[in-house]
Write a structure and sequence with these properties.
alpha+beta; 3-stranded antiparallel sheet; 7-stranded mixed beta barrel; single chain
Length: about 240
């Protein structure tokens, strides 16, 4: 997680993000579900790509069967601004990278700046969320801490008993690993640098699963089942005030 050097820098960035939210939709529809797949023919990008599926199951530890489904992990480059090594080892931190989500507009912008078709699978996403009214919008612009509340495909109002609740962990920046997957697919290594430099504002957002909890974490005697996230589910975008009663 990158940190701002000053409060003024933080305020300036938040002002730009809030301005970008003016055309953000109130709700969306899941148009695609994707899970990790191995592509042995593409060197160095194992697990980077995804494959489309009609649905996947998820709980507060992540997508069932995915490598990011876990309670904790060793801190890495993402946490380097905060954590140093302890006794020569990286500290163990909570896993928050559960779901990678983008909008159709994010895919369109990435395709335009790279000059090739960037699909959901090539970008390695888990869910593709279109605005319910069809407007173009960038899911990469949604602020950290916002909620995505998932209801069934016929939901007209935000459900009080949602299928699942996701919290925005942060904007996903483009990396060389994902750039290599795209470059290998199109046999053009120049796309690696191009992707890292030009797709930084439309790579999408990382979500943490808040609900439902995992069976392993539930209180004794409480029956818990994972949430099934399917194509067609309605998603309500909600923005917390930051005030807790």
């Amino acid at each position: 997680m990158r940190l701002h050097e000053t409060i003024d820098e933080y305020i300036a960035q938040q002002a730009r993000k809030l301005e970008a939210l003016r055309d953000f939709p109130e709700q969306g529809v899941i148009r695609g579900c994707y899970v990790s797949s191995e592509h042995p023919e593409q060197k160095g990008v194992k697990y980077a790509l995804t494959t489309e599926v009609p649905y996947f199951d998820v709980d507060c530890r992540g997508i069932i069967g995915e490598r990011h489904r876990r309670v904790s992990r060793e801190s890495g480059g993402r946490e380097r601004p905060i954590y140093g090594k302890i006794n020569g080892r990286r500290p163990i931190v909570k896993e928050k990278r559960h779901i990678f989500a983008v909008s159709p507009e994010d895919l369109n912008v990435c395709s335009n700046v790279l000059g090739v078709c960037v699909t959901s699978e090539l970008l390695g996403i888990n869910i593709l969320i279109e605005a319910s009214d069809g407007r173009p919008y960038s899911l990469a612009n949604i602020p950290r801490g916002a909620y995505l509340i998932v209801g069934d495909e016929n939901a007209q109002e935000c459900p009080r008993t949602p299928i699942a609740v996701f919290e925005v962990y942060g904007q996903q920046l483009p990396c060389a690993t994902m750039g290599a997957a795209i470059a290998d697919y199109y046999q053009d290594q120049k796309l690696i640098r191009k992707f890292v430099e030009k797709a930084r504002n439309n790579r999408g957002s990382i979500l943490t699963v808040e609900y439902p909890v995992a069976k392993e974490d539930a209180s004794e005697g409480v029956e818990i089942v994972p949430a099934r996230i399917s194509v067609g589910n309605t998603v309500f975008f909600k923005f917390p005030t930051g005030q807790i009663e």
